[in-house]
Amino acid sequence: MDKLRKELSALKVDTILDVATRDGGFAKEMLLGLGGCRKAVALDITDKMFEKGREKCAGLPVEFVVGDACAMDFPDDSFDIVAVANSLHHIPDLEALFREMRRVVKPDGLLIISEMYNDGQPKASLTHWILHDLDCDMHTLDGIYHHPTYSKSQILWMVKNAGFSVDKTLCDLVDDPKVLAKLRERVAAVPENLKKYAGRPEQAAMAAKAAWLQEEYDANGVTSAEQLVIFARK
Description:
The radius of gyration is 18 Å and the shape is globular. The chain has helices at residues 2-8, 25-34, 50-56, 94-104, 123-141, 152-161, 177-194, 203-220; strands spanning 15-19, 39-44, 62-66, 79-85, 105-116, 165-172, 227-233. Strand 1, helix 2 (25-34) and strand 2 form a beta-alpha-beta unit. It is built from eight helices and seven strands; from the N terminus they run H-E-H-E-H-E-E-H-E-H-H-E-H-H-E. The chain has a seven-stranded mixed sheet with strand order 3-2-1-4-5-7-6, sandwiched between helices. The chain is of the alpha/beta class and 234 residues long.
């Protein structure tokens, strides 16, 4: 995410918090952009991806912590930056999430949001967005909370409604070859994955979405979906 790193390179901060971190990928992005930062805390509700995260962040000052982003144990005003990436649509209680992020970031500290948006994805990025939307359908049928992604205006409203002041927005994407290879694998696996839902009332709509996915993939290939990146102040 070159644009994100360029913005971060101008900042001088001591501590950062990445909530809903999974394998620490966004914590790593921030540290590489900042250049100098004493400590990053990577928080997630489960530690199932922490082993991979420690490998990914080897040599960087990242501490992985299990905790609920909607009810964090950190004191008020603890971090210079609090961030959340590609996770808003995985969290049911967004009001609690934003309230907690505002509580633990320092006065005049930064909130950074990086979230796939659902309006206006360009060409090959649209392929990823359709794939993700199909994942939402399948996960919902499996009883897993996975909300479809939000529009740019919805994401901005969440930030402003939580009492933050927006400094800057930009659109960026991940161009890691490993990520792109994984996306191609996921597209190829869709027909087999849909067989699980044969006979379900929702199957026809999902099959139509899968056909749209394949059409876009054949025409434009696939790259990571663009992220709306928001820098906002407490």
